[in-house]
Amino acid sequence: MAGAELIGQEELAQIQELFSGEKTTLYRYAPGNYKAREFEEKFAAYMGVKYAHAVSSGTAAIHCALAGAGVGPGDEVITTAWTFIAPVEAAAALGAVPVPVEIDETYHLDPLEVEKAITPKTKAVVAIPMWAAPKMDEIAEICERRGITLIEDAAQSLGATYKGRKLGTIGKVASFSFDAGKTLHVGEGGMVITDDKEVYDRVAEFSDHGHMHVPGLPRGKDPRRAKGLNYRLSEVTAAIGIAQLGKIDYILSKARENKYKIKERIRHLDNLAMRPFTDEAGAQGDTLIFKVRNPEAALQFEAHLMAHGFGTKILPEAIDWHYAAIWGHLLKAYDRYRDANLEELWPKTGELLQSSICLNIPVLMDDATIDRLVAAIISGSEKIG
């Protein structure tokens, strides 16, 4: 679980520093407060971007990113049919129409499907790197050629790269999450990054009821130009984020080390098809994905792993929350989906996801646990034939 495994004295020290002053106030915009700003500045420096704005969750982050990019009522937002539901919820909350499309063999947005889905109403493409990069060159080229905003919801991929560029720095704006399953863990929190000052300003405004944060004006006197919500991050959460960010290189290196220890010992199993990558060296290492023969074999494999003390991560365990065909409660509100059989809209995605196993690779996984997991994978491979 990455950063969640490493909560300890460093986080406590940051909180103690926060509480060491007189009249401590945990509200980020209180006079003299600085932890949220420090977290933002350090995060922007790590990512190599001009601007970062911290918010209360990863869902808040993608909501703010879409709003900052100007997504609004009637706009169409293309994204992947395999993602956590939050980006689709965020687009819907802005009055936009979510347009999930099929994934390709890398388990990401298929550029060909993106191109096919573009209409005159398409405002943005949200690429969602699930622990690794999609075919970013192709996706970015399509967006540039068609005049569409590229947004990266890199919640699952903090620290991952594509051809040397950090994921989250390729599109106009990007969002990150810091919940329990992410690279960094602060309880609940998120971040939006961009090099575009206008987008940054609109993100900050949207996250704070529309306050424009005009320098020199009292908070109650500053103007507003658009509506917003309360997605503010507290000083306590920011303090934890500062400590977690200091551990990111260790988190990434250990997860990748553990992943390759496992992968090298099972790559000979010819009935497990390892996930292909656009840039495996840059992948975020806390997840290992492989495909088996069919959905029935995947469920059998999952049950075998569970019997040996190992759970799966999203596939198959939580596919309902990560696959567009299951989201009738949201998508059926739109005319284009109301009378459709959602399972029939994304057949390639459904077959791939339902036939896959996704394994979490903890940072603090010792060699004995790795040995047990490898043995369970090998015996599971033998069991499904």
From TrEMBL:
<keyword id="KW-0663">Pyridoxal phosphate</keyword>
<keyword id="KW-0808">Transferase</keyword>
<dbReference type="InterPro" id="IPR015421">
    <property type="entry name" value="PyrdxlP-dep_Trfase_major"/>
</dbReference>
<dbReference type="InterPro" id="IPR015422">
    <property type="entry name" value="PyrdxlP-dep_Trfase_small"/>
</dbReference>
<dbReference type="GO" id="GO:0008483">
    <property type="term" value="F:transaminase activity"/>
</dbReference>
<protein>
    <submittedName>
        <fullName>Aminotransferase DegT</fullName>
    </submittedName>
</protein>
<keyword id="KW-0032">Aminotransferase</keyword>
<comment type="similarity">
    <text>Belongs to the DegT/DnrJ/EryC1 family.</text>
</comment>
<dbReference type="InterPro" id="IPR015424">
    <property type="entry name" value="PyrdxlP-dep_Trfase"/>
</dbReference>
<dbReference type="GO" id="GO:0030170">
    <property type="term" value="F:pyridoxal phosphate binding"/>
</dbReference>
<dbReference type="Pfam" id="PF01041">
    <property type="entry name" value="DegT_DnrJ_EryC1"/>
</dbReference>
<dbReference type="InterPro" id="IPR000653">
    <property type="entry name" value="DegT/StrS_aminotransferase"/>
</dbReference>
<dbReference type="GO" id="GO:0000271">
    <property type="term" value="P:polysaccharide biosynthetic process"/>
</dbReference>
